[in-house]
Amino acid sequence: MQCSDDSIVPIEVGEYLHSHLKNSTFRLMETKGHYPHISHPEETISFINEYLEQNCPDYIALKGY
Q1: How far apart are CA 33 and CA 62, in angstroms?
Q2: How far apart are CA 13 and CA 22, in angstroms?
């Protein structure tokens, strides 16, 4: 997850990490800033849930899908 306008970690850093970490995913958030879990928890939770639902079978089982 990368905020769209992060004054501490530019998008290029997130893209670099994504291209160098095997099996990584890169999601650009509409949220601006460096602490999305504080300033925009709803979008952060949504991104985390989407990732878990797509990549973690145990998570799906726990939610009862």
Answers
A1: 32
A2: 16
Place of tokens 């997130």: 14
Neighbour tally for 25: CB within 10 Å: 12
DSSP state of 22: T
pLDDT, one tens digit for every residue, the chain (65 residues):
999 999 999 999 999 999 999 999 999 999 899 999 999 999 999 999 999 988 887 876 676 65
Backbone dihedral angles phi then psi of residue 2, each to the nearest 5 degrees? -135, 130
Tokens of 29: 């958030």
Structural domain range at position 8 = 2-63
Compute the distance between CA of residue 24 and CA of residue 44 in angstroms, rounded to an integer: 17
How many domains is the chain built from? 1
Q: Is the pTM of this model over 0.85?
A: no
